[in-house]
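Why do we care about 3D structure at all? Because function follows from shape, and shape follows, mostly, from sequence. That is the central idea of this module. The next example makes it concrete: a single protein chain, its amino acid sequence, and then its structure expressed as tokens.
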Amino acid sequence: MKASVAFTLEKLLPVFVWVLAGVFVLNHLWAPLSDPDFWWHLADGRYMVQHRLILRSEVFSHTLAGTPWIDFEWLSQILLYLLVRSWGFGAAVLAKIFLGFAAVALLGLSLWRNGARGPLHFLLTWTGFHLLKPRLHERFELLTLIFLALLVLVLTDGRAQARPKQRLTFLAVLMLAWCNLHGGFLFGLAASALLILGAVWSKQERPSLIFLASSFAVLSLFCLLNPFGARLGTIVSEHAHLLGAPANYIGEWQPTSMLFAPLYWAVVFISGALAVVGVLKREGRVLFWIPAVLAFSIWGTRHYRNVAVAAMILIPFLAEALTLLRPKLSRLAARFQGAAWLACAALLVFELHAGGVSLPKEAVNWNVFPVRACAFLKDHAIKGRMYNEYAYGGFLEWTLGEDFPVFMDGRYPFYPLLEQEAAPLYEGLPYAVLRDRYAAHLKSHRVEYAVMGYSDFQVPSPDPSPFSLTPLNVMFPRSEWALVFWDDAALIFLKRSGANRALAERCEYKALRPHNPPQTLAELASGAVSADQVAQELERHQNEIGPSLRRNRLQAVLGGMLPERPLGLTIGRRGAILR
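And the structure:
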């Protein structure tokens, strides 16, 4: 009886672990859409469908209007727009879940095909999931992760010399889709070339070398079948040329530090150690991987966003190298398999408990996008040229269309404009110099209004004061700009002397500074603004916007300095709210 129970547990425990892991992956993927780049992809797709053309120049901004650029995700954008148009944003969430699961599952299959079994297979898959995790959201990069996993599977299985013609046909179809869906097809070409080097170094048999060389030739030929031809291959150099300093201001483009990504560095070090052992033992199947492992490891350290791509090479290498070079590890895992699976289950339970399980109520996290700000712009027919938060450009394009040309969005041609905004803040310039530089920057583009987000960055005040300034204080000083709208996501500033002068005078918040609550507190304490002014503007904001975390924060900072107002009922846009 005991033996029967033990046998049942031994069979059910792995199933329980994998199912629990699936729940964890689902919990991560089943999150509302919140990536700012999602929206300019949608806008591009809508434009191409409506105009029946492929974008080759900039159409949504007034800063780079007509500038040529390579839309290397054109087909993905069209398909995304058609998906959302037909079935709504919920379909986009389901697509993200499906593609994310596919990427993780294909990585696990690659590990299995390269020799990983039992708890080792699970732990390597789980390590791979955590390396992929930062990129498992609504980005077309998911397609590259899937295609790269498939490519590695085909090329590594091809060493067995089975059905080479069918494999080459599959690779041709894969590359034809890949090069039109996402620019990550270049990683596939690089992986194929590097595995050829590894095959030569490890002295693979002639049929294997012929298959790998033929694969590279097929991939190289079919990647030319795109609307941009060979020019599509220049996207890496264009990114490198335009990115430059902005890499310091965009989190995903920053270097992969040990503090920021310790798991990745642990994988790199273990891979390096196994590669050295493989060289010393002249183990051919390990040598086969080393050029690709070395190149992708370096690529992964260059930018944090590259870690997921590097994982698609490093983790399968670990599976094969550990199986070949450390057979004792496999025997030890087999001997204590029950305990190992229990440890895996405990790890998952701990992670689920620490992270929690939550399902979104909406398909889109509307709170992080300037939804009401867009409505304000349309309702009041704001005129002139816009300046906007870098992360809001895509949403503005999608919501407002071509009638409100943006200043910039998340596409690579706009990196230099982002640098012009961000760089001065990191140069330690005095307030007066910063103010004049931003004033000249906005004047050179004839900006009449701005849609901005909040920033925690602090700029030293020019005079001794109890508060620091924010970038918005410096870019939009009260003497020249009027704050006319704010909610939890965005603020709108109008130029006082511009085409929106009458609206600026009528709608200005003269007392409140929601982007700098300590400033409002100091001005209230000094008498620069009155308590009645502040209270009236808070009530106005409540009537116009409804519940607001920013307003609650502002009221908490102001404390007891506001006059007591009678308890009543205010009817706002969201219905009746108690005040």
